[in-house]
Amino acid sequence: MRPLSCVAHGHRLLPESLRPGGLRDPLNPWDFYDVDGDKRVNAIDINKVRSKAFQDFPPYDRGMGAAPWAPGPPDGIVNAVDVGHVRASVNHYCVDPP
Ligand SMILES: [Ca+2]
Ligand SMILES: [Ca+2]
User: Is 95 part of a structural domain of the chain?
Assistant: First the structure.
């Protein structure tokens, strides 16, 4: 299971806005922290990340990225830093192209 960024889902970037998936790297599959694939970052994603605390579970793991809301590739451990990343992008979502 490979996480997908907003753009990888086929949705557009809105560079002027973070919440609709804006300012992410279109080539980076990690910088939109939606682990369940529903194109929204919410409490479900937070709980899923927390459920793998202290485990090496790449689908829910992230590392340092461009910003707290735009994490990088897995770093080998799901921990409080990951929870901070997913919380930093709560309510961010992908939007359908017009
Ligand atoms: Ca989600
Ligand atoms: Ca991590």
Answer: no
Q: At a CB cut-off of 8 Å and minimum separation 6, what does 47 contact?
A: none
- Residues 38 and 94: their CA atoms lie apart, in Å, by 9
- Helix, strand, coil percentages, rounded to 5, for the chain: 25, 10, 65
CA of 22 from ligand 1 middle (Å) equals 16
Residues with CB under 5 A from ligand 2 (ion): 61, 75, 82
pLDDT digits (tens, 9 = 90+) for 49-85: 999 999 999 999 999 998 899 899 999 999 999 999 9
User: Does residue 1 sit within a domain?
Assistant: no
Counting ligands in written order, which one lies closest to the CA of residue 38? 1
Beta bridge partners of 67: 70
Ligand located closest to 76 CA: 2
